[in-house]
Structure formats: structure tokens, C-alpha cells
Design a protein that fits this description.
Number of helices: 11
Helix content: 25-40%
Largest sheet: 5 strands, mixed
Distance between the termini: 95 Å
Number of strands: 13
Shape: globular
Structural class: alpha/beta
Strand order of the largest sheet: 5-1-6-13-7
Length: 303
């Protein structure tokens, strides 16, 4: 082997070694970096105990200049992204006012229904304003403020194959969104109905449009609005199950923020704020078909 060739071989060996070392270091750094979290309605450690990141205080929120709010991005007219790329809807108008009265700006995080608890326990947001129905199970995981809306379940289906009674769904396929009260209600009360589940509302509605299911169930406020915007579909069941309320949610034990929100809801009731919110965001969709008093809750007091 010539000296020149031997020199080249030594240089090549050193280069390969350096590359291998760099690759190993990169893998090590990646292993130590942040990991994506799986959305769920609970956050548990390997031992089975709930583990919460520390919620921010009001002073910390004010110092940061932002209130972190989880909202839907695909559930018009309650929480969605408009044609200009801005968050809009009934829940978003409320979020804007909360942030304003705190002296900060809202910072939105789009959330899927099943992840609404997780974003609080992991401290990704300060408050959830994503059409969050109050249930006993959820109360064990988060703290709900006073309600600002009331709701029941509804069922929307195609014209010509309209579902007007739950018995018509026996043996058929019902579309639901994961982590919603509709999923829980039908699993508990109607096991003979096949549930087709989706993470996002947009995917669930597309499944209905494509004929992958016989009907779709979620809050009656939502399906009524969707059916008015989509010809060929009717809400055959407008009220199903017990009437429930929708309220803001904060991390369990975050009494400081909870007390502020409750005080805010009480004050806003004296302004008729949520009726004004309804007029701005929901009335253009519902028109005269729905009375605002059937949906709106003022001052946290359900009539």
C-alpha cells in the first residue's frame, strides 16, 4: 500500500468515526427531548396516580401577558377558525372578554374533545372553553366554574332516512366524537347501537356526509346549527337524555382562577353579556328557529 493511499484511508476512517459519533449524540439528545403526549380524559403515572403540572397563578398569568385558552377549531358556531384564520364563535367571544378583564390577551390552543382534561392536567392551558358539558365523571378530574350555557343531546340524519326515535338506530351505525357526552350516553344506554368514533368533529361530519354512518349525535345546539348549513340533513331528535350545562373548566384545585371566572360570570350576567354573545355569534345561524333562552345562561344561574 502506498503512503498516499494509506493516508487517505486513515482520513476516511476518522471521518466515518466522527459521523457515527455525531449520530449517536443526536439520538441521545432526541431521547432526552420533549415527547408528544397522547390526548385522553385523564393523565396518570405508571403507578396509576393522577399527576398534575402546577397551574399558573393569576399573577403569573398577568405577568405573562396571556391567558391560555383551549377552544375548538372545528365546531362552528361555538369555536372555529374563520376564513381569515382567526378563532371565532360563542366560546371565543367569552374568552376574549375574560382575557380583557384580566388585562391580558387570549392565546388559543385547538383541542379535540377527548383531550380537554389532558390540556389542563398537563398545564398546557389555564382554562378550557370548548363546549365542555359538566358531568360527575369530569368533576373528579377538573374544576368547573358556573355555567354559561345549557344543552341536551341531538341526533342529525339524512333526509329520507331521518332518525326521529332512538329505537330506529338499533343495529345501525351512529357517528360520535370521542370524549363527548354522546359517546358516554349511547355506550351506557344503547349497547346495540354500533358507534363509529372520530377524534375531531370535522371528521365526524365528513363521515356523515359520506354515508359512513346512519346518523350523528352530539349537543343539540351543534347539530341544529350544522343541519341549517347543510341541505339534505334534519335533526330528527332535538332533545335526548337529561338537560345539562356547559361551563369553563380549570385545573383541579386552581381555586384562584376558578373564583375569578365565577365572579366574572356573575358580573357579566348584569350586562346580559351572553345574550349579546348569542346575538352576535348564534342568532345568524339559528335565526328564529331557536330561542336564546333555550341556550343562554346568565350569571351562572340556570332557570
Amino acid at each position: 500500500m502506498s503512503p498516499t493511499f494509506a493516508t487517505r484511508m486513515r482520513k476516511a476512517t476518522r471521518a466515518v468515526t466522527a459521523l457515527a459519533t455525531a449520530a449517536i449524540m443526536a439520538l441521545g439528545l432526541a431521547a432526552c427531548g420533549p415527547q408528544a403526549e397522547v390526548p385522553s380524559d385523564s393523565s396518570s403515572s405508571a403507578s396509576g396516580t393522577t399527576s398534575n403540572a402546577q397551574a399558573r397563578t393569576l399573577d403569573e398569568i398577568k405577568s405573562s401577558g396571556v391567558l391560555k385558552v383551549a377552544v375548538f377549531s372545528d365546531k362552528a358556531p361555538f369555536g372555529y377558525v374563520d376564513d381569515q384564520g382567526n378563532y371565532a364563535g360563542y366560546d371565543v367571544v367569552f374568552a376574549e372578554r375574560l382575557a380583557k378583564d384580566l388585562g391580558v390577551k387570549p392565546e388559543y390552543t385547538s383541542v379535540d374533545p377527548a383531550a380537554r382534561v389532558d390540556v389542563l392536567t398537563s398545564n398546557k392551558v389555564d382554562v378550557v372553553l370548548a363546549n365542555f358539558t359538566v358531568t360527575d365523571d369530569r368533576k373528579e378530574k377538573v374544576d368547573f366554574a358556573d355555567p354559561y350555557m345549557k344543552v341536551s343531546l341531538g341526533v342529525v340524519s339524512p333526509d329520507g332516512a331521518e332518525i326521529t326515535d332512538v329505537s330506529q338506530l338499533d343495529g345501525k351505525t351512529l357517528i360520535v366524537a370521542k370524549g363527548t357526552t354522546a359517546e358516554t350516553y349511547f355506550e351506557k344506554n344503547y349497547p346495540n347501537i354500533t358507534l363509529q368514533k372520530y377524534d375531531q368533529y370535522a371528521d365526524a361530519y365528513n363521515a356523515l356526509l359520506d354515508g359512513r354512518g346512519d346518523a350523528f349525535s352530539t349537543d343539540n345546539t351543534e347539530v341544529l346549527a350544522w343541519a341549517k348549513s347543510n341541505k339534505g340533513f334534519t335533526v330528527g331528535i332535538t332533545k335526548l337524555g337529561d338537560a345539562q350545562t356547559i361551563a369553563p373548566a380549570v385545573q383541579k384545585g386552581n381555586t384562584e382562577l376558578l373564583d375569578f371566572i365565577n365572579s366574572e360570570i356573575k358580573q357579566l350576567g348584569t350586562e346580559n353579556f351572553f345574550h349579546d354573545d348569542y346575538k352576535q355569534t348564534l342568532e345568524p345561524v339559528y335565526g328564529d328557529d331557536v330561542s336564546p333562552d333555550d341556550i343562554v345562561v346568565e350569571g351562572g344561574v340556570v332557570d
